[in-house]
Design goal:
The chain contains 15 helices and 19 strands. By secondary structure, the chain is of the alpha+beta class. The protein binds zinc ion.
Length: 446
C-alpha cells in the first residue's frame, strides 16, 4: 500500500503534511478516490519508521492529485513564481521583409502578485478553461501545473485568443523536494521545475515598448530611405542635365560599334594621307612594320591608324636626331672619360625620353583629330586626358566596364610605344616613360 507525506483536509480543503498534524489526525481524505487517509503517526518519540498517511483500506489508488493540489496551494499561498526566458520576432504586419524584423528578448525572472486565485473558470468564444492558479494584477499570469512535458495545442490557442500570460510548470522530479519539507517543495515548484510559456501576452509592457521602438525605427528607416531616394534622384537628374551631351555621344558611340567605327576611319578619304600610303608601300615592308593594326582604343583618333602612328614615329626620329648631335658633342668633349667607362655608357647616358603625354600633345599640335566623345570627356576632366584606369570614385557616373569602354587615345599611344619597343627603337622605363635607344654597336669615337 502506498505511503504519502501529504493528505487533503476534508474541513479546510487544504493539503496538510504528516509532520504538521497531531497524533491520531483523522480528517485526511484522498482527492482521487475520496476515501479517508489515515495518519500513521502515533508514538512519535519512539517510532522506528517515519510517519505517513495511507488509505483506510486496501487500495491501489495512486493519490496522484495530492501533489498537483499541493503545488497549486504553495503557489497560491506565496504568490511568487519564476517565469522563463522568452523570445519573439517582431515584424511589421504590412511588410514582413527581413529588413524590418527585430528580435524581442525577455529575461527570466520572478513575478509576484498581491492576489492569487485558484481554479477560476474563464470563457473565450464559448470555450472554457480552468487554469490551476491565476496571479491577478497587471498583467495577469495564469499557471498550469502538469505532470508531463506535453503542451496541447488547444491550450495554446485558448490563451492566445485570450491574450493573457500563461506558463506551464512540469512536475517531473518533485519527489525529493516533496519529502524534505514545504519550503523545499515550494522552491521546486516556484523555480526549479521545468517551465515554459504557453502564451506571452502582447499587453506585457516590455513587449509593447519593444514593438513601439521597432515601429519608430521602421518609420525612421522608411523616412531615411525616402530622403535618400529623393537626394539620389535629384543628383542623378542634375548630373544628366549637366552632362547630357556626353551621355548622348557615349550612347551613340556604343550603338555605333567599335569595329565599324575603326573601319570607317581607315577608309574615309578625308581621314587618309595618300602620300604617306605611297611611301609605306614603296618601302617594301620596312616602314609598314612600324604601323600596328592591333591597338586598343585606336578608334579614339578620327583618322586612319597609320596617320597618327607615323606622326609619333616621326617625333621619335626628330628627337633622336636632335639628341644625337648633342650626344656626339658631349662624347667628343669627354672622350678620355668615355674610354674608361666602356660600352655600358651608351645605354645609360643616352637618356632622351619619350612620354605618352608628350606624344599626345604632339599629335594635337599636328592637327590629329580625336572623337568628339574624347574631347567632351576630357573637358569634363578639367581638360586633362582621362586616366588609363578609372579612379576609385566613379568618374562621370560610369561603371568600371563603361569607363573601360570610353575611348582613351593615351591607351592607344602607350600600346604603340610598346610596339616601338618590340622593334628596338624604345626601351620601357616606368609609368608612361620610354627611353630612346641608340643602336650603333661600335663605339662612336673609336
Ligand atoms: Zn485515493
Amino acid at each position: 500500500m502506498k505511503k504519502f507525506v501529504i493528505a487533503k483536509d476534508k474541513n479546510t480543503q487544504r493539503i496538510v503534511r504528516i509532520d504538521e498534524v497531531e497524533e491520531g489526525y483523522s480528517d485526511g481524505v484522498c482527492p482521487d478516490c475520496g476515501h479517508n487517509l489515515i495518519a500513521a503517526n502515533r508514538n512519535q518519540a519512539t517510532r522506528k519508521v517515519a510517519c505517513y498517511f495511507r488509505h483506510d483500506r486496501d487500495s491501489e489508488c495512486s493519490g496522484e492529485s495530492l501533489v498537483h493540489l499541493y503545488a497549486k496551494q504553495v503557489l497560491h499561498d506565496r504568490k511568487r513564481v519564476f517565469v522563463p526566458d522568452y523570445t519573439q520576432t517582431i515584424f511589421d504586419p504590412n511588410d514582413q521583409s527581413y529588413l524590418y524584423q527585430k528580435l524581442f528578448q525577455y529575461s527570466a525572472k520572478f513575478i509576484s502578485s498581491d492576489q492569487a486565485i485558484m481554479e477560476n473558470s474563464i470563457m473565450v468564444d464559448e470555450k472554457s478553461r480552468i487554469p490551476d492558479v491565476t496571479f491577478l494584477g497587471s498583467p495577469i499570469l495564469h499557471i498550469e501545473i502538469h505532470n508531463t512535458n506535453k503542451v496541447d495545442d488547444d491550450k495554446k490557442g485558448f490563451f492566445k485568443k485570450l491574450d493573457q500570460n500563461c506558463i506551464e510548470i512540469h512536475m517531473d522530479g518533485y519527489h525529493a523536494y516533496l519529502d524534505k519539507g514545504e519550503s523545499e517543495f515550494y522552491e521546486f515548484v516556484s523555480k526549479l521545475a521545468n517551465r515554459q510559456w504557453i502564451h506571452f501576452s502582447s499587453e506585457n509592457k516590455e513587449l509593447r515598448s519593444a514593438i513601439w521602438d521597432s515601429q519608430q525605427e521602421r518609420k525612421r528607416k522608411r523616412c531615411e530611405n525616402e530622403n535618400r531616394k529623393i537626394v539620389t534622384h535629384n543628383k542623378k537628374e542634375q548630373w544628366y542635365k549637366k552632362n547630357s551631351l556626353f551621355i548622348d555621344r557615349f550612347r551613340a558611340f556604343r550603338e555605333h560599334g567599335i569595329p565599324l567605327l575603326r573601319e570607317k576611319q581607315n577608309a574615309y578619304s578625308k581621314y587618309r594621307d595618300l602620300d604617306l600610303e605611297k611611301k609605306l608601300k614603296n618601302s617594301e615592308g620596312y616602314f609598314s612594320s612600324i604601323i600596328s593594326s592591333e591597338l586598343d582604343h585606336d578608334y579614339a583618333f578620327k583618322c586612319a591608324s597609320y596617320v597618327w602612328q607615323w606622326k609619333i614615329y616621326s617625333l621619335l626620329l626628330n628627337k633622336f636626331k636632335e639628341s644625337e648631335n648633342d650626344f656626339f658633342d658631349e662624347i667628343y668633349k669627354n672622350q678620355s672619360k668615355l674610354k674608361f667607362w666602356g660600352p655600358e655608357f651608351f645605354w645609360n647616358s643616352y637618356s632622351t625620353k619619350l612620354t605618352v603625354s608628350e606624344c599626345y600633345r604632339y599629335l594635337k599640335d599636328q592637327g590629329v583629330i580625336v572623337l568628339d566623345l574624347v574631347n567632351i570627356s576630357e573637358s569634363l576632366n578639367d581638360g586633362e586626358a582621362l586616366p588609363l584606369k578609372r579612379p576609385k570614385e566613379k568618374f562621370l557616373g560610369l561603371s568600371l566596364k563603361e569607363y573601360e569602354l570610353l575611348p582613351k587615345p593615351t591607351i592607344a599611344i602607350r600600346k604603340y610605344l610598346f610596339h616601338l619597343c618590340e622593334l628596338g627603337f624604345l626601351k620601357y622605363l616606368h609609368g608612361n616613360e620610354f627611353d630612346i635607344l641608340y643602336r650603333e654597336v661600335a663605339l662612336p669615337y673609336s
